[in-house]
What we know:
The chain is of the alpha/beta class. Helix content is 26%, strand content 23%. A 7-stranded mixed sheet has the order 12-25-26-27-23-24-13, covered by helices on one side. Strands 21-18-19-20-14-17-22 form a 7-stranded mixed sheet, with no helix packed on it. A hairpin with a 3-residue loop joins strand 25 (530-533) and strand 26 (537-541). It binds adenosine-5'-triphosphate and magnesium ion. The site of adenosine-5'-triphosphate (ATP) has 14 residues, from helix 3 and strand 8.
Amino acid sequence: MDTKENITENKEEKAVTSNFIRSIIERDLASGKHKSIVTRFPPEPNGYLHIGHAKSICLNFGLAKDYQGRCHLRFDDSNPVKEDVEYVNSIMEDVHWLGFDWGEHLYYASDYFDKLYEFAEYLIKAGKAFVCDLSWEELKEYRGTLTVPGKDSPYRNRSIEENLDLFRRMKAGEFPEGSRTLRAKIDMASPNLNMRDPVIYRIKKTHHHRTGNDWQIYPMYDYTHCVSDALEGITHSICTLEFEDHRPLYDWFLDQLPVPCHPQQIEFARLNLAYTIMSKRLLLELVNNHLVSGWDDPRMPTIAGMRRRGFTPEAIRDFSERIGVSKANSLVDDELLMFCVREDLNKRAERRMVVVNPIKLTITNYPEGKIEEFDAENNPEDPSAGKRKIKFSRNLHIEKDDFSENPVKGWFRLALGKEVRLKYAYYITCNEVIKNEKGEIIELLCTYDEKSRGGWTEDGRKVKGTLHWVCAESAIPVELRLYDRLFTLADMSNMEEGKTYQDYLNPNSLIVKQNCLAEENLQEAKIGEHYQFLRIGYFNVDYNSKPGALIFNRIVDLKDSWAKLSKKI
Ligand code: ATP
Ligand code: MG
C-alpha cells in the first residue's frame, strides 16, 4: 500500500499536485493543439457505480473544471443484454451527488448506432473489413495466442460487394445469432492480439433499452468507444491500464475513418481498495445472493452504499485527490478513505451523546425529581454551530464498559472509589455496585461534587476520565448499526487457491445494537444528517429511520489510526 506519502496537510498544496495527465493537457494547451479540453466519463449501465468509478469521475470532471473545458457523461450502452434503466438513473444520481454536472452533454453510445453502421460500411468499401462466417469457437481458435500467431479467416478475401451484401443482410436480420460477424482486416500475425482482425459487429437479436428492436447487430466496445469519442470531439480519452493494449486498435479505427478528430487515449492505474471488491459482476452477485441488503447496503463500496452510510461527496473527492493518478497498479489502504471521511465530518458533524450498552447510574446525593440543564457545545471545531441544552438528573446511564470492578493499572474510567468527570456536568465518585442474583452489575451508586458544575472544580482538582452519559428521565431509545469491512482479506485479488470471495465475507460486518440510549436532542434527527456521538463514532440517520424509531448508521469510528500513522512518518 503506497499512499501514505500522498497525505498533505495543506489543501492548497494538494490543489496544485500535478500528474502525468495534467502535464499532457498543459502541453497540448500550450502548443495550441487544443484550445480547450473535452473529457468524458463512459460507464456501462450494467451496475451501480463504485468508489473506483468515483476516482474516474473526479479525474475526468475535475480536469475539465480545472482547465475550463467540459466533461461528457456517456452511457456506453452498446451491449444490449446486461443494461438497465435503473442503472442509468442511479449513475446520473451518483455523478450529481459527487458534485459534478455534464450540463447538456449527456450522450449514449446507442445514439451513434446509425453513424457506427455507416462507418462500418465505409471500412468495408475501403477493403478494411469483411464478413466472417467462423463461429465464436472457431474465431477463438484462429486467433492464436501470445506465442502462437493467428490464422487468416477463410472468408478474409471476400469481395467488397459480397461483404456489403452480407453485412446489410446481417443488419436486416436474415442470419441467426452467432453465424456471422463483421471483422476489421488488420493483421493476424500481429503480436498484439487486439489487432488480429478483431470483431466489429456481432448478430444479437436482443431488445435494447433505448433502440428497442431496431437493431439485429450490435457494435463491439473497441469500435464503439473510439468512434463515440471522436464524434463528441473528446480531446483526452482517459481510461484504465488494461486498455493500454487496445490503444493501437483505438488509433487504427480513427486513422481509417473520416472522423472529425482523433482523441488521445491515456491510461492510468485503476483504484484497488483494500478489503474490497470492485467488479460489478461480483457486486451484483452479492446483491442477488442476498449477501448484502442491496446495491446501497452501507457496507458496499458503491457510491449509493457510501451515500447511505453517510460518507460525504467532499470526503470522496478529497480521497480521489490524495490517491493521485499513476501508471502503476497498487492497493490503496482503506484507512485513507476513512481518514478523509473523519477529516470532513469533524468539521461539520454536530456532537451528541449516545450510550450503546447502558448501565444505570444513580447519584445518591442528588435531589430526587430535580432536573437541571447544561450547555453543551454542538461542535468544538465550529463555534457557529452553537450550543444545546442537555438534561441532567439523579438517574443516568453510562456505558457498561466504562466501569470496571477490577480496574487494570492505568484505568482512568469509573471504578469503586474513583472519581471521573461526566461530560459537561459534574465530577462523580462511585461508591457501590448493585448486582442481580446472577452476580451481574445492574446499577452503580455514585455521589457528585456539587461544586464541579460544568465539569470543573474550583480547587483545580484533576480527573483523568471523562465519560459520556444520558439522563434516564429524558433519553430516547435508538438503534445503531455498526459496520466493519465486508471482507477479511486486504488484497482480494490474492485469494487462496480454490477459494472465492464468499469465503472471505466478514461475519461481523454488521452489528445491530437496539435499545441504545440517546440524549433527548436527537429526537428531531432527520434522515441523512451527520452526527458525532462522543467517543463512539460518526453516524448518519438511515433512510429507514422514523420519528420514535430512529436508526443510525455508523459511518466510521473515531480512532484515527491513519492520522497517527502519518504523523509518525
Ligand atoms: P467492471 O469491470 O466492474 O464491469 P468497468 O471498468 O467495466 O467495471 P465501466 O462502467 O466500463 O466499468 O467504467 C466506466 C469508467 O470507469 C471507465 O472509464 C473505467 O475505466 C472507469 N473505472 C472503472 N473501475 C475503475 C477503478 N477501479 N478505478 C478507476 N477507474 C475505474
Ligand atoms: Mg467497462
